[in-house]
Amino acid sequence: MSIFLSKIKHIILKRHVYGWSSPLRVLPELIVIGVVRSGTTSLYHYLSQHPSIIKSAYDELGYFDSNYELGLNWYKSLFPSILKKNKILKKNGKFMTYDVTPFYIYNEKAPKRIQKILPNSKLIVILRNPIDRSYSNYFLGNQDKSFEEVIENEKKILNKINKSNPDEYYNFVHTSMLSRGFYAEQLENWYKVFPKNQILIIQSEEFIKNPNKVMNDIFDFLDLPHYEIPDTSKKNKIYYDPMKKETRSDLIKFFRPYNEKLYSLIGRNFNWDN
Predict the structure, then answer these.
(1) d(CA 171, CA 194)
(2) Residue 6: predicted pLDDT
(3) Rounded (10°) angle between helices 183-191 and 245-266
(4) HEC assignment per residue over 150-213
(5) 3-266 in CATH: which number?
(6) Cβ 111 vs Cβ 192: under 8 Å
(7) Residue 171 phi, psi (nearest 5)
(8) Rounded Cα–Cα distance for residues 92 and 54 (Å)
(9) What mean pLDDT is predicted for residues 196-204?
(10) What is the average pLDDT across 134-159?
(11) In this structure, what are the phi and psi dihedrals at residue 165, rounded to the nearest 5 degrees?
(12) Longest dimension (CA), the chain
C-alpha cells in the first residue's frame, strides 16, 4: 500500500478503530522535527532500512502539531506493536521506531508536548540553505505570482506582523517561505526544553552529498551499529528552473543575519553565503 493510501486509511479511521490497539504498541524514541524541503522524506525512507529500525505507518504524522486533539491512543496506533519490537530485539539486540514531521519545528507548543510524553526522545533537525529551501517550497504551492513577488510580499508582512500575538505570528511562520528559514529562532524554542545533546543538527547539503556517512553519524547519535543503506535515492524530489542571480544575491543579504545567529547558536558554519 502506498504511503498516501495508508495515510488516508488512518485519517478516516483515526482513533475510533486504531486507538483500540494502542496498548499493544510502542511510542517512538526518535523524532525528526524539521525542516520542510530539506530531505526529511528521504530520511524517513533511509532510517527504515536499518535492521533495528521500524518506521511509523507514514511520515508527517503531525501529532504534536495539527493532530494533537486526536489523542495519544491514535498516535500510538501508528507505531509498531510490542510483539514486533520484541521480535527485532531478539534478532538484532536493538530496536527503534520514529516520527518524521518537519512541521514540528515551527510549532511553539510542540517542544513541551513532546517533552511531557517522551522526555528522553532524541530529536533530529535537517537544515538546508534557507534560500534553496524557500525556492523549493515555492514550487509546492500555487505559482500564480512569481517567486520574487511572493518573497517581497512576505518581507512587507514581516515588517508589520505582531510578534507579541503568538497565534498571529505562528500562523504566518508556519506557512511563510522566508520565516521558515529563521532557524536560530526556531531552535531556541527547542533548546529551552531539551538539552543540546538530545538534538542532532544535520546539514542538508552534506546529507545529499554523502548520505551513508551522514546516516552513520545518525546511527552513532542513536546508539545503533553502523549500516550501509542500500537505497539512497532521493525522495519527494521536484524539478524547477534555477533561481535568478539577482534574486539569490538579494536573499543572501536578507538571510545573512539569521544565518550568523544560527552559526553562533550551534557552533557551526554552513557557509551559505554563496
Answers:
(1) 24
(2) 61
(3) 20
(4) HHHHHHHHHHHCCCCCHHHHHHHHCCCCCHHHCHHHHHHHHHCCCCHHHEEEEEHHHHHHCHHH
(5) 3.40.50.300
(6) yes
(7) -60, -35
(8) 12
(9) 98
(10) 92
(11) -100, 95
(12) 58
Grid cell in block for residue 239: 524539478
**Which residues are paired to 96 by β-bridges?**
53
Band (pLDDT 50/70/90 cuts) for residue 228 is: very high
Scored b (16 or more CB within 10 A) or e, 90-120 reads eeeebbbbbbbbbbbbbbeebbebbbeebee
Contacts of 96 by beta carbon, 8 Å cutoff, 6+ apart = 28, 29, 30, 52, 53, 54, 222, 224
Domain segments of the chain: what residues? Answer: 3-266
Mean pLDDT, residues 49-68 = 97
35 preceded by a cis bond (ω within 30 of 0): yes
Name the residue among 106, 101, 9, 111 with its Cα closest to residue 55. 101
